[in-house]
Fold:
Amino acid sequence: MHTVEVEWAKNEKGQFIPNHIPGTEKVLPAQLVLLAMGFLGPEQPLLDALGLERDARSNVKAEHEKYTTSIPGVFAAGDCRRGQSLVVWAINEGRGVARECDLYLMGSTDLP
Structure:
């Protein structure tokens, strides 16, 4: 795992952005990495590369309870769809999007 320390500063729009602190790079061995970070919105370069439609808050635009995006076969759930929210909503949407993916891929689903 490659790491670097950052300091948070506001950009010209007043948004907090991370600034790399030179000389703080480290490489650590890891088999599993779990990130627990504040939500700054979905990764815009990824959404740009995929060509996904967004809502007014820059989240992925996806149909409520269907999780379908502007690209057939691409689904969105949790914070990237609804914005920063409670983990229980992310769990609920994770289950819902799994059901919709199963339905899309298999034509039917037994998932609740």
In short: The chain has a mean pLDDT of 91. The longest helix spans residues 87-106. The longest strand covers residues 6-10. The chain has three helices and four strands.
